[in-house]
Design brief:
Number of helices: 6
Strand content: 15-25%
Number of strands: 8
Radius of gyration: 18 Å
Strand order of the largest sheet: 2-1-3-8-7-6
Order of helices and strands: EHHEHEHEHEEEEH
Distance between the termini: 33 Å
Structural class: alpha/beta
């Protein structure tokens, strides 16, 4: 099975943050025996993001998008992916409860604003993955033998979600794994080795 990674965020393109998520995901996907032939970064732009998702779906079985699930207007990943899949967004009551609980734990240091409820909207028929470290849930959409997985961008949210929920999901899709060994050599030049 082939998988493609799309990292979403203008801040990555501008060099404001280092894209550590792609390195983490690529390593874990290789452990699962999934072939990753393409990785891309797309800014917060609806048209370019839609093009990237459509291209990835044409050439891969699984597409994983990281980022763009926040509460602001420039967070478009969920909306654009739902459009590509031809699905409407609907409120997920469980996610709304989790968002309320999250802000209650903050003890009103950060009040809930109306745009926070945007994160409770999910594509119809998707699998919702709870975010134990933030408010944006992960989302899995399946159609015609293809899977698209949406993960929040912050590494402290993406990594535990991938480890606890997405890795097992992908393991069920790909029961075979690749076994490899890394040998590290010190003190000798690469050409000599």
């Amino acid at each position: 099975m082939t998988v493609e990674l799309i990292s979403v965020g203008t801040e990555i393109l501008l060099g404001n943050i280092v894209n550590t998520n792609a390195a983490y995901l690529a390593e874990k996907l290789a452990m699962l025996g999934l072939s990753c032939y393409h990785q891309s970064v797309v800014g917060d732009n609806e048209e370019r993001l839609e093009d990237a998702i459509r291209l990835a779906l044409d050439r891969s079985d699984i597409v994983i998008l990281g980022g763009g699930l926040g509460p602001t207007k420039d967070d478009l990943t969920k909306e654009v992916t739902a459009k590509v899949f031809g699905r409407e967004l609907q409120e997920d009551a469980h996610t709304r409860e989790r968002i309320q609980e999250y802000f209650d734990r903050l003890q009103r240091k950060n009040p809930i604003t109306e745009n926070n409820w945007k994160q409770a909207m999910v594509p119809e028929g998707c699998i919702v993955v709870d975010n134990k470290n933030g408010t944006a849930p992960g989302i899995i959409m399946e159609k015609n033998g293809k899977s698209v997985i949406l993960l929040p961008g912050p590494p402290n949210e993406l990594i535990p979600m991938f480890k606890n929920d997405i890795f097992p999901y992908l393991s069920r899709l790909q029961p075979e794994t690749i076994y490899s060994v890394m040998v590290k050599i010190c003190g000798l030049g690469e050409s000599y080795v």
